[in-house]
Amino acid sequence: AQLLKSSLEGIEEFGKNLQGGELRVSFPGTELGRQLAQVARVIKARALIGAERDGFFCQLGGFDSHGDFFNTINRKFTMINDALEAFATEMKFPDESGQSAWGSITIIQASEFGRTMVSNGRGTDHGWGGMHWLAGGQVNGGRMFGRFPESLLPNSDLMLSRGRIVPTTSWEALWYGVAQWMGVDEEHMEGVLPNKHNFAPGQLFTDDDLYAPPSPPPAPAAPPPPLPPAVPMPPALP
């Protein structure tokens, strides 16, 4: 009974603190837009909640595009773009301290499997290898990691039946650098990535690979120019 009481009190307190996460941006009313709006409220109220590091999970289904591929993908990509644009804009607004949260955020896109490169007539079927992306204020973007297939022809060494690509980079590769960025030291990394010991050096991406280096401190202000020489005093009158 005491545990239930404390849980209900915690939920009530969390709800009160969440009211401090007022949003400035109008989020789309889509499935993903509503989820990211709630995430934004929690982040905006992080000082009241007392959060240091948080992880949020949003999901969007409907990508099983065995049929009507183009309409499905265009509709889903538009939904993702609109929701992420609203979220990033909201996170770039400065808070009461004058700092925005965007520099402390990493967004990771994930899917449980890729799709075939060859159409089934109306869409695509279940594949194997795929792609993931990262975004955030400190992410050093505009680059690709992993081994991209040199050929997409059926006889390629990375191509299986009907355009199923063999993955060359582990899903865990990016999580190593993200964990470092979040402050996990090497001593505790095995608890986060228990398969880490199975990878050779260079197969896991570090935080230096994924994130831009911190901005250097501003240069000190230039010293003021020297004062002009003092005008000599006239000699005293006799």
From TrEMBL:
Compositionally biased spans, kind Pro residues: 213-238
Pfam families membership: DUF1501
Signal peptide from the UniProt entry: none
Coiled coil: none
Region (Disordered): 203-238
Protein name (record): DUF1501 domain-containing protein
Source organism (scientific name): Coccolithus braarudii
